[in-house]
């Protein structure tokens, strides 16, 4: 039977990339990326957040790009696979750590300052994209009639979105 080991995350860097080089000259960049889920607590009705931290490793050219352009707070899209490494700590204990080995990375947000401070930025990451003002809408020749709003019975939905954990 075939298997799939694929991870896709979109999140923000928790700190600047940690760069290392292999004796061969190849580079590796290690980062931690935070992803946050927001949901409405059914019992209390209040909004809650859960942040998960992911260790991500970039290799080769991707590591060079990460080291050059990514900074704490940068928002990135990462695709890769899960890898578990076994290592021995300073006390001789065997440890395991699972990380994402990145195959693809896309920097999100604007390029203003390439991760440096922008006019309304406190020094980390990329600003949200600045949007140009939309052109003024043209006046229609004849105003279309609005469609009647569906009733609860007609639509079949009854505020089910209150239960969705987004």
Task: Note the topology.
Layout: E1 7-13, E2 18-21, E3 27-40, E4 47-59, H1 60-69, E5 75-88, E6 94-108, H2 152-155
Parallel strand pairs: 4-6
Antiparallel strand pairs: 1-3, 1-5, 2-3, 3-4, 5-6
- How many runs of DSSP E, i.e. beta strands? 6
Distance between the termini: 34 Å
Strand fraction band? 35-45%
Which regions contain 5 or more consecutive residues with pLDDT less than 50? 112-137, 151-166
The Cα radius of gyration reads 23 Å
Count the DSSP helices: 2
Average pLDDT, rounded to a whole number, is 78
Give the structural class: mainly beta
Shape: globular
Biggest sheet strand line-up: 1-3-4-6-5
- Could you spell the SSE succession in H and E letters? EEEEHEEH
Biggest β-sheet description: 5 strands, mixed, barrel
Oligomeric nature of the chains: single chain
Your description of this structure?
This protein is mostly beta strands. It has helices at residues 60-69, 152-155; strands spanning 7-13, 18-21, 27-40, 47-59, 75-88, 94-108. A five-stranded mixed β-barrel has the order 1-3-4-6-5. Strand 2 and strand 3 form a beta hairpin. It is globular, with a radius of gyration of 23 Å.
């Amino acid at each position: 039977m075939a298997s799939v080991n694929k991870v896709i995350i979109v999140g923000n860097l928790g700190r600047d990339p940690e760069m290392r080089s292999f004796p061969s000259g190849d580079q590796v960049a290690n980062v931690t990326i935070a992803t946050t889920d927001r949901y409405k607590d059914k019992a209390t009705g209040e909004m809650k957040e859960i942040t998960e931290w992911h260790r991500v490793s970039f290799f080769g050219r991707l590591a060079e790009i990460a080291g050059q352009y990514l900074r704490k707070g940068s928002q990135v899209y990462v695709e890769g696979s899960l890898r578990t490494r076994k290592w021995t700590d300073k006390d001789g204990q065997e440890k395991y750590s699972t990380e994402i080995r990145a195959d693809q990375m896309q920097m999100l947000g604007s390029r203003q300052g390439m991760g440096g401070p922008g006019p309304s930025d406190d020094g980390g990451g990329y600003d949200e994209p600045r949007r140009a003002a939309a052109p003024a809408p043209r006046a229609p020749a004849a105003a279309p009639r609005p469609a009647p709003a569906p009733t609860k019975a007609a639509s079949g939905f009854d505020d089910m979105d209150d239960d969705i954990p987004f």
